[in-house]
Structures are given as structure tokens and as C-alpha cells.
Amino acid sequence: MNYTSIFKAFADLTVNELYDLLRLRSEVFVVEQNCVFLDMDNKDQICHHLLLYADDVLLAYARVLPPGLHYAEASIGRVITSLAARGTGTGKELMELAISATKKLYPDQPLRIGAQLYALKFYERFGFLRDGEIYDEDGIDHVEMILS
Fold first, then answer.
1. What would you report as the CA-atom Rg of the chain, rounded to the nearest whole angstrom?
2. Of the candidates 54, 61, 47, which has an alpha carbon nearest to the alpha carbon of residue 19?
3. Is the separation of the CB atoms in 98 and 107 below 8 Å?
4. Global pTM?
5. Cys-Cys link to 128, which of 79, 98, 134, 145 (CB 3.0-4.6 A)?
């Protein structure tokens, strides 16, 4: 599949890009996962955002958090793939781009993520290692993982 990737600071996002990412996050985290939580957490403004489009449709998204914002390390969060794009390799492409972009922004920094437990094996494929106990976040089991 041919993708168009966009990686921008919050202030550089267009109104349509912001709408697309917020809509996809709501579709997946709130509606699909039936998780009532405040997605807009006042961190987006400090983050960089990776959007993966095909034919002008947002298929996947992740945000990159600077060290010290959520964890001491840089982090990748809000990782999502639209329901229509699952099983196509889009999520793999998204994570490869997100890791690469994060390492360019924050070289020589480890990356820490808070992974939903069901996705543990997915993140292990990129070299992330489990680092901690299972914890509940908004009714979903998570575990921290680190990539050195």
C-alpha cells in the first residue's frame, strides 16, 4: 500500500489533520474500545504527531512525547490503526516510522511506552521489552515497555 506520512509539531497541523487525528482516536479509543476517558489531555500541544494516510484517508496515527512529559524517557503513545486498515501492515509501517522519527528528535534516548497488554507481542517485534507490572488504565490492562 502506498502511504503518505505526515510528521508535525502540534502548531503545524492543519485544521483538517487535527480533526482527522482526533476523530480516529475517538473512533478507536472511545467507541470501539468502549472506554470513556478524556482523550484531550493537554499533552498534544507539546507533542509531535505522525499521521499515515492512503488516498486522503487517515489510516493510522501516533504521537511522540518528549522526555519528561509523561515518562522520563521519550515516548510514543496513542498508537492506533483504523479498523479498515488492520491486518494490512499499516500498524507495522506506523511503528517503524514513529520509532525512526522519535530517534531523530531525541537521539541516544531510550523510548518508553505504555502498551495495552493485548499488543505486547506486536511491540516486542520492534525490540520493546516489558518493564514493569500490569496496570489498569481506563479499564484496560497495560504494561510499560522500553526500547533502549
1. 14
2. 61
3. no
4. 0.93
5. 145
Nearest-angstrom CA–CA distance, 84 and 99:
23
Partners of 52 in beta bridges: 5, 60
| Residue 77 vs residues 1, 2, 55, 71, 106: alpha-carbon distances, Å | 24, 24, 24, 11, 15
DSSP, res 71: S
* Cell representation of residue 68: 519528561
Q: How confident is the model at residue 50 (pLDDT cuts 50, 70, 90)?
A: very high
- C-alpha 20/C-alpha 64 separation (Å) is 17
Domains of the chain: 4-109 (3.40.630.30)
Q: How far is the C-alpha of 97 from the C-alpha of 119, rounded, in Å?
A: 18
Distance CA 17, CA 52 (A): 11
Pairwise CA distance, residues 78 & 137, whole Å: 13
pLDDT, tens digit (0-9, with 9 covering 90-100), for 102-135: 999 999 889 999 999 999 999 999 999 999 999 9
